[in-house]
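Lab meeting minutes (informal)
Scribe: AK
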Amino acid sequence: MLNSFLKNKFNKKKKLYTAVAIVATAVIFLSLIFARFNSLNLDSNFLLDVKKGDSVYSVSKTLSENGVIKSEIFFKFLSKLSAKSKIQRGKYEITPSDSVLSVIDKLANGKVIRYSVVVPEGLIINEVAEIFESAQICQASEFRDAAKNTEILQSYNLDFKSLEGFLYPDTYLIPSNFSAQDCVKYMVKTFFIKNPNLLELPPAQLYDSIILASIVEKEYKRAEEAAKIASVFYNRLEKNMRLQSCATVVYVLKEFYGKKPSRLYYNDLEIDNEFNTYRYRGLPPAPICSPGSVAIKAALDPDTTNYLYFVLKDPATGEHVFSDKFSDHRDAKLQYIK
């Protein structure tokens, strides 16, 4: 009876050891399989462009056809196993150090390539649109349409025809899956983040401030003179004088006539257009560009002066001569304008 007991105990241990050995062998085998198929066939970076409507199945086929992955079946199985079978559109950079699992994680979490987009101060919507098209983020026409989107305008209580003046000039890191509307929303959001006090202004006052800031943006050369230039325009408005800003004439020529003038002539100042402040009193009906922080601050907090005129003294330094009398201004023009 003792022998029978010992024999049974030995058989149980034998079965246990056998089972452990089978499991261990299976684990080792599966680990080897996982390691083999989880690695990529890459010597250099691969750009994957996932478009709207693409799925794990279509992406796995693309990766397989380009020799990036070793098995479509493994890619699809691992996507389902990790509960990451939903992917986001955009452009992805796959590197030799990536694995199938890390690629799946990138696609599921939208870890797309981000493009650096530099938008300088003083550009109009059309010019900003061209920058985004050159960066291959969206078509210029799509960007222009988005800048007139009423939903975006209304979200900031802006009852205007477009977002001209509200596309904040900055350096942006734009995800490659952003649409034109996403880009515009991002820029307007940045505008109000950088200038939170503007949200406290009534819409009409806000708009007038940005219109004036846009003119100051195109007129000043040196930051320390921006508030002084703003004071000139405020003083002229108070006296019901025409602003007579050359920048508004340049805007008319660019926006309405497709010209890029290197200098203005007297007949340009006579163009009959509501943006031409040589012909029409008051502010133009809309901003003439997207102003930066210096110009916006100057428009909100101008210097206190009696100046009514200014003329560029030195093109190299951007220094202006300011006058409160027309006779002094006339003398300055004769001296400095060649």
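Next up, CB showed the second protein from the same session:
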Amino acid sequence: MVAALAVSCLLVATAFPAAARESFDDFLAGLRSEARRQGVSEATLDRALSGLRPNPKIIELDRRQPEFTQTFWGYMDRRATKKRIERGRQLLSKHGRLLGQVYRKHGVPPHYLVAFWGLESNFGDYKGSFGVIEALATLAYDQRRSKFFRAQLIDALRILEQGHIAPDRMQGSWAGAMGHMQFIPSTFKRYAVDHDGDGRRDIWTNLPDVFGSAANYLSSIGWRKEETWGREVRLPADFDLELTGLGTRRAVSEWSRLGVRRGDGGRLPASEIAGSIILPAGYRGPAFLVYENFRTIMKWNRSVLYALAVGHLADRLKGQGGLLAKRNDSDRPLSRAEVEEIQNRLNVLGFDVGEPDGVAGPMTRRAVRAFQRDVGLPPDGYPSAGLLQRLRQAAVDPGGDKKDDVN
């Protein structure tokens, strides 16, 4: 017990250095004043904030970064599981009438809503066990992202003031994401709806409000009712990889003229809908033609892999088969240290990735593509173990053979 308390105190001291900022009590006093100015009553503040202390476990989770990146196949295997697909289909049928009502009102098809539900909380099984006020207060008091989480905390207090949930039932993730669809408070504030008309927007226990809120959110940020998210495709052997990426949009008919085919080899539909070709596992992995709804999914979660998982899971729930591309068994997860090494080596060679952070974002992928182009590798922008090997080789022999394809 004493040892655990000592560790807890050390974590608090590390996360919240006393010399760097105000005490937690002073922080709460300032928060109370701000919340009162935004219409939160003293009674709500007392119920929500009395006895509140920062939680070191939340800071530990916030600082913890995954040691390894995830490959495309590894990510999909964990999310579009056979068990999740089967259960999702059962729930799609069970709640068909409600989901149909939500579709008619907001224009988001039921299989997409159930796919989001499955990925966000495993259909409500894992909604989070942290008190949202405690989590947000801890993160708002911390210096790293204080402004963002303070705003979320004020919104959470306003949700309590409006009576949508009681403080002791406002549970969520360590980062303050709430309910079946893991809305943060600002998303709740803008998009949550009272679908069943009981006077409360309950995204924790009320499925009409859960589905209605998710659909309202998606339709408000650009969901196109008559379009799909995308599809798996095949690229011709001579396809110009410079055309891949979300930055390039062409009509489906234009991609067809360039030799792009459906995943099963058939011709693409005759359509002028604009889409982009993406290669989430590099040119040796699967290829997808993605449309505007894919970009809307990325507004929910700015991860290409997440958006692909939503789209693919939605297709499977509707009865479509699995992916057709063959797995590349040589592709392996990179550690954050390896990604950071790639970034450092690219910077040294003059391909700007900004400050190395171990995360392969758009700037890193642009730099990877530029390096690949420079040394004669297929320019797919994919950071792989083979690419790291080539970068190490470039440091030793910068004038080496530019046709050595180890990507």
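CB comment: Residues 336-396 form a domain with the Muramoyl-pentapeptide Carboxypeptidase; domain 1 fold (CATH 1.10.101).
No objections, moving on.
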